[in-house]
Specification:
With 342 residues, the protein is an alpha/beta fold. It has 2 domains: 174 residues, Quinone Oxidoreductase, Chain A, domain 1; 134 residues, NAD(P)-binding Rossmann-like Domain (Rossmann fold, 3-Layer(aba) Sandwich). Helices cover 28% and strands 26% of the residues. The protein contains 10 helices and 17 strands. Strands 3, 4, 5, 8, 9, 16 and 17 form a 7-stranded mixed beta sheet that branches. Helix 3 crosses helix 4, helix 3 crosses helix 9 and helix 6 packs parallel to helix 7. The relative contact order is 0.15.
Length: 342
Amino acid sequence: MKAMVLKAPRDLGLEEVEPPPLRFGEALIRVTHSGVCGTDLKIYDGSIPVRHPLVMGHEMIGEVVDVGDHPIRDDRIHIGDRVIVDPCLSCGVCINCRSGQTNLCRDGGLIGRDSNGGFAEYLPAAKTHVFPLPSEVDSQKAPLLQVLTTCIHAQNFIDIFPGQSVVVVGLGVTGQLHLQLAKSRGANPVIGVTRSAWKRKLAKESGADLTLSSGPHAIRGVLDATDGQGADVVIVATGALPAIAEAISMCRPGAAIMLFGVTTDTEGKLPFYQLYFKELKIFNSRAAIAADFPVAINLVAMGLIKLDALVTHILPLADLSSAIEMLVTDEDHRMKIILEHQ
């Protein structure tokens, strides 16, 4: 089969490789579309160490072509089904898995990082990690469902309810999804914050009640929009440490902050007295669990979350290297890049 193989950092090319064996409990997926993620960039440039050679890719959909010849069947999955794959691997027996926190499995991993992934013609996947897609979900947009599951997982911690004011700081793909998800849960107003005028425009078109440019102006704007009280919830969908400080200043006393972006800073300045004085609740989340996939699929199928505007580029699988470079060079007018597998 054909696959994009990473032989060393930045050494990526289309190769003919042996088809993967189908093990007990797995279905074989012919991958039709995949999404390119910032994690792929970090694996590609060596920031995330991996075993080489590796086939990357953890946002993928495709068609079931084999369900195995096993006595134990899964009646959810049939040959010909269009499906999405949950890429998070877990052992099922550790304390986190037994507690339902499979995303925190101590022996877990990620397809496309710890095992070969979806930038290939075929992918074997555990049937428990495969979810059928309804006709209402377009194949070119469907890889974004995996991203949406991570936003759903995060928002389940903060339990947004109708009438709450929600601020989303950082309006990349996940920020835009967080904004739509908060709107679908009845939040009002929902405020998007970013330096990018193009992303603010996209957020307004997606339903944001107000958008603001980052910085002191944004803090004043949030306070003005919430009668001087501050927001009930602030979701930080960027890893920039100053954004966390900004979020703290936007909160009302007793509010909740979701630290969704990955922050690599080990030190920095935060308004720590506000943390004490406001009695803020701070959460963070990591990846998603299997239960988040049916929720994501239903939200998109019902039209409550719209993915069309978030896919800005569609490229052939063979252009993966160019797609990864675009994550660095074309940030302001680029959202999700989808690869079509021919």
